[in-house]
Amino acid sequence: MFDTVIAPSGTLLGLLQRGRGDGTLHALTAPREEALAALNHCVLSDPRHDWQVENRSLYYARLYLDLNGSLEQIAQHLFCAEDVLDSDETRTGLALSVLGHLASYGRDDALMLLRRYAAEGSNWAWALDELALRDDDSGLRTLAEPVLARFPRTAEGDTELSAAVRDAFEPRPWRLWAEDPREFIGARVRAAGERGSFDQWQRQMRPAGPRPGWSVAAVFAWAEEAMERGAGRHVPAARCLTAVAGPEDLPEIISAARSGSDGARSTALRYLADAQDPVVLDLVEAALIDGSQTVIEAAVDAFERMTDDNALERARRWAERPDALGAAAGRVLACRGGAQDASLVLGALREAVRSEGADGPTLWTLVDGTGRLGIACAAPVLRHIYRETASSHLRGRAADALAATDPSFAAGFAVECLWDCEETTRELAARRAETADSRVVEQLRRLAADPAEETEMQTVVRSRIGPDA
Fold this sequence. Notes:
By secondary structure, the protein is mostly helical. It has helices at residues 12-18, 21-29, 32-44, 57-67, 72-78, 82-85, 93-104, 108-120, 124-134, 137-141, 144-148, 155-167, 172-178, 183-204, 216-228, 234-244, 250-259, 262-274, 279-290, 293-304, 309-318, 324-336, 342-356, 363-373, 379-388, 392-405, 413-417, 423-432, 438-449, 455-465. The protein has 30 helices and no strands.
């Protein structure tokens, strides 16, 4: 899968890809064919930074409803030849989730597409999960035969079936099928469920890793063994050190943090930081000079976990460093600094935007800190991040920070946030948006009546519009 190219934020496609409320508002006033073309582009080519945490499906489904959009292109996407060649669930996951929401809104064509794809498509498990939430028992029972036919009556097929039953996100279809009186369905599903439970029990009875009686040296060796295989293990190894190390082991741990192998050094730095031992601060700084990239990343991460006054003072000294430690210091101040650190946090925010753009990973913490400290002069930078970031979660954080720093937020961005793809952003807007705008009242009423919104969201909305609205 290639990364989707995100269009400029001022275009209809760019707005819809970002999941911004303005995307919906612009789509509803644009020529219908143009709006549907942009919408289909988004659904068929997932624009999210992280599909596991960012929401788009409800946002796109609502727009399909508003535009009375056809599902023909989604059907072509699901059942094209590429579905056989590319079984990566991210190719079809967003489209299937959109169909699930549309089915909830009563679109029978979406329900039929989901049933057909669960029977025929490569990403059938995702479609089945969507149906488990929306379809009736009779509809799910019709899928038992085509789904079980995917698993041949061989030892390998039975193993795969057991894994599918065990790992199902929504177990409802499998429970229905286990009750089927036909032996080749009900008995087979029940047997698969029993095997999956037994396999899980066996794995739990064979834990890998440290045992009681391990020494500090053994923990370091365990961490280094994983490092040699390219798998970092210093975080659990540091927790093991907490269990096995005593005061007499501190010199050995400090020595490892100063000059040990990568696995041992990373583990020792993490252990000392978690213990809030002030000696680790000099060791972290030394790691930036002579450590490998792996050790540098572990050292920076260990420093960011420290919460005591010594770490805070060191962060103030390091905040203007032009390296990873300086960036970490800015994040530490954003999380735990006081009003006197506002200028350093603002400087770190501006530098992060200059060097990494509007989607830099360090921005999340800095944006939160800017809002926490109420840095009013940061509003222009926050507005830039809000407009430009492709991450709907970061945009939501920017909106939250703007609510604390920008007096114009309630009459500005808060209005469009009522149509945002993220529920937390919509909830913020429901609390803050000025109701003098007629669009705000109308959208609040729609959200209050929409069963797709969570109870907490609907409670907030109804508190704004009153019981008689």
